[in-house]
Structures are given as structure tokens and as C-alpha cells.
Amino acid sequence: MLVSSRSSTDPTTQPPARARTPKRGTTLVLSALSLVLSSAAVAATPPLLAEIPAQSAPLNQIYSFNLTPYVRVTDGDTITFLVNDLPAGLNANKNTGLISGTPSATGSYTVGVRARDKDGDSPKQKFIIKVGTPPVLDSIPDQDGRKNITFSFSLVPYASATDGDTILYFANGLPEGLSVDKRDGLISGAPSVTGRFNIAIRARDADGTSTKRNFILRITQPLNDTGVLRCGTPYGSATPSNDLKCSDPAAVYPQEQDAQHGRDYLARTGQLIKVGGSTPNKNKTNGFDYTKIGSNGQPLAIQDAVWNPNGDETQGTQWDCVLDNLTGLLWENKSDDGRLRDKEWTYTWYNSDSTKNGGSMGTPDGGTCFKNGRCDTEKYVKDVNAVGLCGYKDWRMPTVSELGGILDYGKLDGAQIDSGYFPTLGSRKYFWSASPRADRADQAEIIMFDLAYVGIWGKGSANAVRLVRGR
Q1: Is the pTM of this model over 0.70?
Q2: How far is CA 218 from the centre of its chain?
Q3: Are strands 48-49 and 90-92 parallel, antiparallel or unpaired?
Q4: Per-residue pLDDT tens for 113-152?
Q5: Separation CA 145–CA 221 (nearest Å)
Q6: d(CA 188, CA 168)
Q7: What sign does the dihedral 195-357-442-448 (CA atoms) show?
Q8: What gap in Å lies between CA 176 and CA 191, rounded to an integer?
Q9: Rounded to whole angstroms, how far apart are CA atoms 60 and 133?
């Protein structure tokens, strides 16, 4: 029997070793631990607190300041606020971050703030709250101004510093065209809109403290002056006259007359700046301010030429409309061509709108005009809008106040209107307004341009019409 000589230690005679495997669950435990540690690292993110600007608080007045806008929450946790060293009289709500109260002592206070969530606190931020004595700002009376007319109002008389500081002025709610100079407190400019404006004024001193007041500013549409440039004798005078020089020391007349005030006075004395112009009366300029407008709605390049029925816009001798630069109204200039807008046509008063006709529509088609069946005020408005006079389709009948606004009472002869800008008056001097009579449904108000007079006429009467647009 043969016996093997191989050692028991010969690897070729040993069974293969079994591979070692980790104990069950070891890898899962390590992975879970890694996730837990990673999750904990991500979650530990306290809030961030931005730099907080210095604040000013008025002594003995209610004050509040919110810290919330300066906190950035990193992971959606609930934030609480830790605030210290506040001025006496102020407290901080730890949940909302609102600092509020009534400061009771002046001084400059360095306030410390931390924002805290479940992961910890933000870095501490410090900011200044300066408590000072605010300026005194008295009640400001309501004011009135006119659209497109220079307005000026000083706030200085209503403000005073309690400790000698310089006061700065701020205003919110001013209409377009007005602004305030923060150093001299002057509200000025030319308002370009009408309305009732609630103006908020704030007076601030060097301490940064301020006082607020509000007042009402009413801006209305301006009215034309009368055109009267001369003074008159007293009623019952033996030698009555309305043609006296107001500057004549030898003339005997009552003082404080129309010609001594307003736009006409300023124009006559060279103090009025106009956008356009007007026709002088006896070489004296009045306060009317007109611009001749062509068929395209644009001002004529030549404004000082005289009307010519055979002229044209290029030469400045014909124009379709007249802009009143003071009131902003655009007026129809009657034509002299026998067509739709001719100066000689007449119309009866008619308005089918029961909310505006005073209880009676009036008389349809009772005048004499370019097209049969269209000779009343309502149809004329529609016809002019259909052709787009001067590029517009919102023409309307003027109110009696608007129509009376272009009366020139300063003319002592001829039609009482600026014939340099409204040259085509025609033989009919009575013009309808849109205004019905309040106590007579069958009547409406007219302007008599030959007498400078407001009259009442039956709606069935035939009178001239001058349309307007604007406002």
C-alpha cells in the first residue's frame, strides 16, 4: 500500500477557505447612521438676520418698527426674536418682531437683536434708535388752486423746531404738476389735473423725528376773465361812461373795479404770460389766451394772420377750431362756405336724453341748415362728430357757463367775442347752450353775443350753435 508523502500542511490537500462575510445588519446600521448624521447637519441652520438701519422715534408719541423684514428663515422654522436695550417706553413682541410703544426719554440707544429658531440663534445685530423731540406742525388750512395756473403755498409758517434743528418738508398726494422743495417748504408748480387731493405733509428735523399733518387741496378748472380793461363812472352819473382809463388820476370813478384785478389787469400791465394770444381792445391786451387750430388738430404755424374766406391753413388765414389755453376747452370755429358748419345755419334745441333735457326733449329739425331733416342741436352734434372736426369725435353742446366764458365784455362795439379768433359770427348772434331752464321745461338758455347777455329762449326757436369739446 502506497502512503502519500504530502504534508498535512500542503495547501493542495486543504479544503478551500470559506469567504468571510460581515454580520447581518452591519451595513444597514452604518448607512442609517450616515443618513442621520447628514440629516442633522443639514437641519442645523439657524436664521439669518440682515443689517438693520438706524431708526428715529419721536418722544412721547406712539412709535412702531417691525423687525420681520430683516430676517431670512433658512428652513421654514418658527422664528422668535430676542431684543435688548430698548429705549424706555418701548417693548418688543418676541413672536411678531414688532417693536412698539411710546418712548419716554430722549437719547441714542444701541439695540441688540437676535432671531432664534429650533436650530439656534442668528448672529447678533445692533442698530440705533434715536429718540428725539419732533418738530411742531400746526393744522394746515385747506387750499384751492386752478388747473394750469401757477400755484404756490409755503409750509414754513405752520412748522417750528423744538430744539433749533433745521426742518425738512415732505409731501405725498400732490397732483401732477406740483412738487415740494424739502428745504424751503414751498409747494409750487402748475397743476395739470383737477380734483380734490388729500395731501400728507411730514416735517422732519435733524434728529430724524417727524410730525405729520394732512390738508385738502382742491384744483378746479380756471375761468376766463371778463375782458374789461377800462373803468366806469358810478351808477346815475351825469356823464356816464365805461371807457375811462383806470390809471387816469383825474378820472372820478369807484375804486376796486373789474379792470383793476384779475387776468385782464395783469395782461394790461404786462405781467401776464400767455401760451397763445388774443385781439387787443383799443391797443390794450386782455386776459384771453387762444390758439388757432387747423383741421388736423394741430396749431397753425402762422397765428397772427387775418381770416380770409378764400384763404387756407398754410397761410394762417383759415382755421377750424380755437383752443382756449386757460380753460382747456376746444371750440368750433364756424365756417363761411355754405356747408355743414356754416355761420348762418340755425337749429332748434333738441335733446332726447331725459336726464339732461329738463323734462322736455324740445323741437326736432326746426331750423335751417345744410341738410334737411338734420336741423336741431342733437343731430348737429352727431353730424360734426361723424366728420371728426379737428380730428375729434367727442364734440358736444356747451353749458351756458362755458359759452359765456368766451364773452368779451370789454368790447364796446360789435359782437362781444374776440373776432380775431372767432371771425365768423354771422348774422345770428344768439347761440344755444346745452343748459335747459330749471323752472320751464320748454325753454333753454342762450348767450346773446351782440348784447353780452344770458337769455332764455323757447326750445322751438331757431338759433346758432357753437360746439365745444374737453374737460
Answers
A1: no
A2: 11
A3: unpaired
A4: 999 988 888 889 999 999 988 889 999 999 999 888 889 9
A5: 9
A6: 16
A7: positive
A8: 6
A9: 8
Structural contact between residues 351 and 342, judged by C-beta atoms closer than 8 angstroms: no
Cβ-contact 318, 307 below 8 angstroms: yes
Q: Which residue from 414, 449, 412 is spatially nearest to 244, judged by alpha carbons?
A: 412
DSSP reduced 3-state for 402:
helix
CA atoms within 13 A of residue 159's CA, in its CB half-sphere: 27
Q: Which three cell numbers stand for residue 330?
A: 376746444
C-alpha cell at position 106: 430722549
Q: How confident is the model at residue 292 (pLDDT cuts 50, 70, 90)?
A: very high
Residue-wise pLDDT tens digits, 381-407: 999 999 999 999 999 999 999 999 999
What gap in Å lies between CA 463 and CA 416, rounded to an integer?
17
Reported residue count of the chain is 471
pLDDT interval class at 7 (50, 70, 90): very low
∠ Cα 396 402 407 (to 5°): 125
CA distances from 203 to 175, 189, 431 (A): 19, 20, 53
Dihedral class, residue 422 (left if φ above 0, else alpha if ψ from -120 to 50, else beta): beta
376 in Cβ contact with 363 (< 8 Å): yes
Nearest Cα to Cα of residue 50 among 114, 133, 104:
114
Residue pair 103/131 in contact by the 8 Å Cβ criterion: yes
Instruction: Indicate the pLDDT class of residue 24, thresholds 50, 70 and 90.
Output: very low
For strand 55-58 and strand 125-132, is the pairing parallel, antiparallel, or unpaired?
A: parallel
Within 8 A by CB and 6+ apart from 158, the residues are 137, 138, 139, 140, 213
**Would you say 348 and 367 are in contact if contact means Cβ atoms under 8 Å apart?**
yes
b/e code 53-63 from CB counts within 10 Å (16+ = b): eebbbbbeeeb
- Min mean pLDDT across 82-96, 164-178, 202-216, 370-384 is at 202-216
Here the cell at position 50 is: 440682515
Among candidate residues 139, 91, 133, 140, the one with its CA nearest the CA of residue 111: 91
- pLDDT by residue (tens digit) across 138-194? 999 999 998 888 899 999 999 998 777 789 999 999 999 999 999 999 999 999 999
- DSSP 8-state symbol, 390: G
